[in-house]
Amino acid sequence: MRWYGPDDRVPLSFIRQAGAEGVVTSLHHIPYGEVWSRGEIEKRSAEVDAAGLFWNVVESLPVHEDVKLRSGDFLRHIENYRESLRNLGACGIRTVVYNFMPVLDWIRTDLRYRLPDGSEALYFNRLEFAVFELFILKRDGAAADYPPAVVEEAEKYFAGLPAAGSEALCRNIIDNFPGFKGVTLDAVRGMLARYAGVGADELRENLRLFLKAVVPVAEEAGVKLAIHPDDPPRPILGLPRIFSTKTDIEWLLKAVDSPANCVNFCSGSFSGRLDNDVTAMFKSCAPRVAFLHLRSTEHLAGGDFFEANHLEGVVDMYSLVKLAVAEQKRRQAAGREDWRIPFRPDHGHTMMDDLAKPPCANPGYTAIGRMKGLAEIRGLEYAIMRGEDER
Ligand code: DNO
Question: Which residues, including other chains, have CB under 8 Å from residue 85's CB and lie 6 or more apart?
Answer without folding.
Answer: 61, 96, 214, 217, 218, 221, 223, 225
